[in-house]
Amino acid sequence: MTSTQDSKAAPVAKATMMIRRPVAEVFAAFVDPAITSKFWFSRGTEPLRPGGTAQWFWDWYGVSAKVEVLDFEPGARLRIQWNDPPTVTFVEWTFTALSPERTYVRVVESGFHGDDQAVVAGALDSTGGFNMVLAGAKAWLEHGIQLELVADHFPEDARHLG
């Protein structure tokens, strides 16, 4: 973190979405890779659990992320750190039941690294990414539709277009 960042709040990525499903079902969608793979990554090694680790894969991009669970409160909160040093960041999901069939999900990612420009770019990129993830989760959980938002965001045959 630069001295400029020390004097102000560091940028974070934020995304929110109301999903018309019970809080337990929405929480499960983010910890069980069999469900999460319907709207975010290609596959995961195992469900998230308290103190556990997993690996998430985005096969269409040839990348993966190591995930370590820091906090795990079923139906309420999930906090992870992911990636390897020096690019580790922290992601926290909070799940609030607005009614028995409506859940408000809030995602915040923090701990971006680099100079001011890199930190802001990371926060902006993750903000867009997590908004796509939440939109995909909403479509899957409410309607059973796989939108393929993450896979189609930067398809291989369009990468030369920038």
Automatic annotation (TrEMBL):
Domain of life: Bacteria
Chain ranges of the Activator of Hsp90 ATPase homologue 1/2-like C-terminal domain: 22-134
SUPFAM superfamilies to which the protein is assigned, alphabetical: Bet v1-like
Position of the signal peptide: none
Matching Pfam families: AHSA1
Gene3D superfamilies per UniProt: 3.30.530.20
Family from the record: Belongs to the AHA1 family.
Protein's recorded name: Activator of Hsp90 ATPase homologue 1/2-like C-terminal domain-containing protein
Organism annotation: Myxococcus fulvus
